[in-house]
Known about the structure:
The model has no long low-confidence stretch (mean pLDDT 96). The protein is an alpha+beta fold. It is globular, with a radius of gyration of 14 Å. Strands 1-2-3-4-5-7-6 form a seven-stranded mixed β-sheet, with helices on both faces. Strand 6 (117-125) and strand 7 (128-136) form a beta hairpin. The chain has helices at 7-25, 30-33, 79-93, 108-113, and strands at residues 2-5, 42-47, 53-59, 64-70, 98-104, 117-125, 128-136.
Amino acid sequence: MIKLGDWTTLSDDAKLVRFEVFVQEQNVPAELEMDSLDALCLHAVAYGADGVPVGTARLLPDGHIGRMAVRKPGRGSGIGGALLQALMEQAKARGDKVVMLSAQTHAAPFYERHGFRIEGDEFFEAGIAHIHMHYAF
């Protein structure tokens, strides 16, 4: 099940996933992980059958999708794709013509399977290789 909502509603569950994946697993500094943009975003949180949050992502007002994370037990099960599709549908419904994201380079093939195209050169953010990608509706 995926819930969509604002930061006030979903922050506890989204933080749990993001902290585990980005801060604990990938060593992203906690002060970089949570930012002031969270309050402006539409958030999506995926829950397992037991009601525990297993994945999250956010859609910024400018059409960027970010902070996409799935906890280890849920990886490879379609949760990431479901989160991505849910936010893409919301972007399309509000009239966005394009959605963009900065993918960790190792995850680019996942986004390409969902129709995203690589744009530009690889860059580093929080010490992790990324690539810009976009999808036009």
